[in-house]
Amino acid sequence: MSTIIGRKAELKELDRLYRSDKPEFVAVYGRRRVGKTFLIKQAFKDRITFQHTGVSPVDQEGERNRMKTQLESFYFSLLNQGLEGVRMPKTWMEAFFLLEQLLTQLDNGSRQVIFLDELPWLDTPRSGFLPAFENFWNGWCSGRDNIMLIVCGSATSWILGNLTHSKGGLYGRLTDEIKLSPFTLTECEEYFRHEQIELSRYDIAQTYMVFGGIPYYLSYFRKGLSFERNVDKILFGRGPRLRDEFNRLFSAIFSNADDCKKVIRLLATRNSGFSREEIAKATGLPLGGGLTNTLASLAESDFIQKYTPYGVTGRQERYKLIDNFCLFWLKYVEQHGKDSTFMSDNQASDILKSWHGVAFEQLCWQHVTQIKRALEIGGVKTSLSAWCLKGNDEHTGVQVDMLIFRNDNVVNLCEMKFTGMPYEINKEENIKLKERIEALKATLSPKQTVHLTMVTTYGIKQGKYSGIVQSQVVLDDLFG
After folding, report:
1. Smallest Cα–Cα separation from 141: which of 190, 184, 174?
2. Rounded to two decimals, what is the model's pTM?
C-alpha cells in the first residue's frame, strides 16, 4: 500500500463513516489534482465494491453524444466488476438499475463501498443523470444500512450546487462532506523525504510557490535533480511533463472554460485584485448573473478569493488570484515555455524577482496558522486583511501584505520578503516602513498599537534600522 502523506483527519473521518451502522453518502471535493482519488483508493484499498470514473470532457471535445460516451464507459465498469448478460443501458435510470442488480448479487451483508469518481462529468447536458442519481440514492441506497456511497469531483460548484445546497431530491441527503486541501509546506517536505528527493526548505518553499502544494504536480519531481532542473523538465522545453496543463485544468472543470480563463488572466496582472466592475470592463463579460456565477465557481474551486481590503467601506469587494500554479504559468510558462533551461538560467536574475515577492506573499497567506503560532498568538482571536494605501495616482499606491487584527489591541503589520540571505533594512526602506506604520495608526483607535512584523526566509540582519521590527517569522516557522 502506498504511503498517504498527511490527510490524518480525513482518513479518521472516512474510517468512522465506514464503520457506522447506517447508510452513508459522502462527497469529497477540492481543486483538481489535489489527490482526492488517491486518498479514496488508498483508504479503501481492496474494500471498494464498485468504482467508476467519469470520462473527462477534455477527452470528448468535438463529440456530439457525450451522454452515450459516459453511459458506455459506465456499462464497461459494470461488466468489468461482475455484471453479466445485460445490454448497454440507454438511459441513466437504466444504468443505475443495473448497478443495483450488481450490488445485490455481490451483497454478503458486509459494508458495500460505491465510489463514483468525477461525478460532475457524468452529468452531461440533457442526459437525465441527476434525477436518476437522486433515485438511486433515495429509492435504493438509503434503505440499506451497509451502503457507503462516496462521490468525488473537481468541479466544486457542481458538488456544492447539486449536493451540498441541493434544493431538489438530494436536499439534506449528504451525511458528510470532505474538502481536500493542498499540502502544507510540512507535508511537502514529508512527501519529498518519503520519495528520497533532497531539497532544502528554501527550494521546497520555491516549489510551493510554483505548484501550490498540489500532490499530482509534486509527483513529477525526480531525485538527483535540483529544484530548477525539475521545474524545467516539468514545465519548459519541447516535451514538458505538464504540457497544456493550464488549458486542461479549466476545460476539465468548467463548462465556460474560456470565460474563466479570461478572468484568471486578468487577475494575474494585479496582486491586489479587481472589483467586479473592473473585471467586467476588462474582459468584456457582461456585468450580471453570468459573471457572478463565473466568479463564484472560480472561488469555490479555490482559484480566486473574494475579499474586502482594510479601510474600504460599502460593497467594494475585490477578487484576487490565489492559485500559485496559474500565476507562475501565466507569468512565465506561456511566454518562455519553449526555453528548456528557463528556470536554471534565470533563478538568480531579476526576471523572477517580482514573482518571488508575490508568490511568497501568497505562500504566507496559505500558512497563516503557522505565522500566528510563531507569533505566539494561536489562541488569540484575530481577523486578517490586506491594505491598499492609495497614492497620488494609481501608480504610486502601496500594497501592505497582511494585517493581523488581534483582540488584545495589537495589529501586526506584516511585510513579506523572500531572499537568499538575512534581509537588511536600509535607510530608504526604514522611511517607508515608518510611513506605513504611522498611516495605519491614524486609522486605529488610541488603545490599539502597531507591531511591525517581518516574515522572511532567514530573518532580519542586525543593523542601524533593524530595531523598528517588533517581531519576526522565518521560513522554518512556516514549516512548523
Report:
1. 174
2. 0.93
